[in-house]
Structure to design on (119 residues):
């Protein structure tokens, strides 16, 4: 059976689309958080408060990694947010790789891939 015509191909493709979509939304929110901190946005403003509150659970696991963030005249260079963005991107790549491992592979295709891995 051709691996591209397998009944499992479409759900795997949809799964990878979902992972990329979730990652894109999360990364967009985190980059907005990073920019707001960097530009010294007023934390009491509604939009700023909303972004900080919605992104906090995603940066919280990384808060103790760096002892200090760079603060210059109200602007904060938040390394924690950048680290969170990197980790979530790597996690998305790992999930997609797992999805792709479930793809049906023909014997000749598997043989070629195994040979490539040996070299």
């Amino acid at each position: 059976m051709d691996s591209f015509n397998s009944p499992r191909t479409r759900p795997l493709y949809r799964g990878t689309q979902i992972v990329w979509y979730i990652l894109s939304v999360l990364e967009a929110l985190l980059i907005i958080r990073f920019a707001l901190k960097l530009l010294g946005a007023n934390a009491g403003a509604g939009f700023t408060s909303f972004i900080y509150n919605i992104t906090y659970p995603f940066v919280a696991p990384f808060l103790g990694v760096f002892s200090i963030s760079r603060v210059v005249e109200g602007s904060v260079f938040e390394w924690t947010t950048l680290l969170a963005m990197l980790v979530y991107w790597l996690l998305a790549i790992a999930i997609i790789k797992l999805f792709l491992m479930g793809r049906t592979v023909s014997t000749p295709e598997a043989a070629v891939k195994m040979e490539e891995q040996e070299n």
In short: The longest helix spans residues 9-38. Residues 9-118 form one domain.
